Amino acid sequence: NADVAMYYAKDKGRNNYQFFSSEMNARAQERLSVENYLRLALRRGELVVHYQPRMKVATGELAGVEALIRWQHPRRGLLPPNRFIEVAEESGLIVPIGEWVIENACKQVRQWQLAAKKDLQLSVNVSIGQVIDGDRLFAAVQRALALSGIDPATLELELTESLLMQNIDEKVALLNRLGKLGVGLAIDDFGTGYSSLSYLKALPVDSIKIDSSFVRDIHADPNDEAIIRAILAMAHSMGLRVVAEGVETPEQLAALRELGCDEYQGFLTSAALPAEEFEQRYVK
Ligand code: C2E
Ligand code: MG
Ligand code: MG
Ligand code: MG
Predict the structure, then answer these.
(1) At 117, is the pLDDT very low, low, confident or very high (cuts 50, 70, 90)?
(2) Which one of 122, 125, 160 would you pick to mutate in the ligand 1 pocket, going by the greatest count of ligand atoms within 8 A of its CB?
(3) 215 ligand 1 Cβ < 6 A
(4) What distance in angstroms lies between residue 147's CA and the mean position of ligand 2's atoms?
(5) Rounded Cα gap, residues 37 and 16, in angstroms
(6) pLDDT tens digits along 165-174
(7) Left (φ > 0), alpha (ψ -120 to 50) or beta: where does 213 sit?
(8) Mean pLDDT of the chain
(9) The pTM is what?
(10) Cβ distance 215 to 187 under 8 Å?
(11) Which end of the chain is more exposed for a tag (fewer CB within 10 A), N or C?
């Protein structure tokens, strides 16, 4: 890895060489080694999907699951996405990894739907690298639907606002194609991006996930409550479903119920679980 890092440094020209400090070198090496191991991890089957239940606020019923990737590292243990998603993005590995997640999660949820004889929804996160090659994402979704036999309407893709705002026209075209397949679209981390709300009109959005930062103090901070109330009013008048993220306490849930929020996810009910555990608790 050191050799590769040096090669890149030299490649930038003699004058730049001196600026390639040892600190940068260490960081580049770290990055390259994460990338190489991540590539192997995908091949060796070390990536796993965990499932977090999403509940209906009014009834407490299970509404669906969100697929959340983890890396079962042989030495470092179970790694959350923030330890490797960025490298996956920058290296382009997010494309095959994302395809693997969609296919895997669709197959798993189809099994659960059959076993539970229930209409369980599935949400899958999609990141920028996957959306840039729209044709490939579209093909991957079609393939996952066909291989799993899942009803397209039970799959929802989660995208963030900032991701949607770049080259919005291309996004609209891709998301309309996916929408025609029957696949849903959710705006993730809603409220955290610097975006105009006009994309809500332009895109075939089905639901909004209010970022956990607004939920945390909802029962204590009148401003957070006002923001959530406003999001709910707007979303509901547009016919969108609203999900609150990061619900950890009964007080937060009570406040959301009072405000008329549709669904929630959070540690109050459960963190994301390995497939077997999810199955034991929610399917069998
Ligand atoms: P996200 O899609 O906004 O997912 C919500 C995150 O909040 C998850 O973290 C979840 O485990 C965590 N969470 C859920 N309930 C609570 C709670 O009550 N309290 C707190 N503090 N946290 C809670 P996780 O699994 O670490 O995922 C982080 C992010 O990584 C996700 O944010 C998503 O943007 C990305 N990600 C996860 N899986 C995938 C994937 O398969 N593909 C892509 N492209 N991105 C993924
Ligand atoms: Mg999400
Ligand atoms: Mg989120
Ligand atoms: Mg996120």
Answers:
(1) confident
(2) 125
(3) no
(4) 23
(5) 28
(6) 778 888 889 9
(7) alpha
(8) 90
(9) 0.91
(10) no
(11) C
